[in-house]
Amino acid sequence: MAAKKKEVVESAFDKLSDKHKLFVLAYCGECLFNATRAYQKAYDAKYDSAAVNGCELLRNIKIKAAIEEVSAQQFAEMRTEKAKNETYQKIKALSQMSIEEVVDLAGRTLVVKSLDEIPAHARYAIKSIRYEKKETETNISENIHVTFEDKLKALELLSKVQGLLEKEDNTQKLEIIVKPAVRPEE
């Protein structure tokens, strides 16, 4: 008997041009399903043309199929035990972060530490850092605004994962009793 050759099926993504592949990967990845930004990333286009052309690409059947394929693969990867553990570790880090890991008290002023000094688990808790410089006729003030992720939400998620919080039962039970009608005798 001759050995059967295994037929290799080319995926929808593999059938795309290089630019279309870049678009799909950017769309499903760092651009978070924003066609305009994905088009700008793939084609180095200006905003107005990217807004039109990105939308057009989403109507392309081959692009749609590739997006579904890549999204399904990403979702499958998110459901692995390793991915679940990484998510758990990030939620745990958010819930355990202390403000002292990010700022120092210098006199009566809070000073934000350099990113090198902030532990990795505490960096997860930082939502944004914004620098602000104001100049007036008399002085210059420089401020750094640090916004943190919601610690209470992280604690709530951690509690649910650990089974400490019961799942809320939002269903209402309603019992209807149907009695036969009593008709007056004529």
What sequence of helices (H) and strands (E) makes up the elements? HHHHHEEHEEH
| Spatial separation of the terminal alpha carbons | 92 Å
User: Taking Cα atoms only, what radius of gyration do you get, to the nearest Å?
Assistant: 28 Å
Overall tally of domains: 2
Class derived from helix and strand content: alpha+beta
- Please bin the fraction of helical residues: 40-55%
Q: What's the helix count?
A: 7
Spatial sequence of strands, sheet with the most strands: 1-2
Largest sheet data: 2 strands, antiparallel
Number of beta strands: 4
User: Tell me, what's the shape?
Assistant: extended
- Quaternary structure state of the chains depicted: single chain
Q: Whole-number average pLDDT?
A: 83
Poorly predicted runs: none
Strand proportion? 5-15%
What does this structure look like?
By secondary structure, the chain is α+β, with helices and mostly antiparallel strands. It has two domains: 18-78, Arc Repressor Mutant, subunit A (Orthogonal Bundle), CATH 1.10.10; 83-161, no CATH class. Helix content is 44%, strand content 15%. The chain is built from seven helices and four strands. It has helices at 18-28, 35-43, 47-59, 61-78, 81-96, 120-123, 151-161, and strands at 103-106, 109-112, 126-135, 140-148. The strands form two sheets. Strands 1-2 form a two-stranded antiparallel ribbon. It has a two-stranded antiparallel sheet with strand order 3-4. Helix 2 (35-43) crosses helix 3 (47-59). It starts with 17 loop residues before the first helix and ends in a 25-residue tail after the last helix. The mean pLDDT is 83.
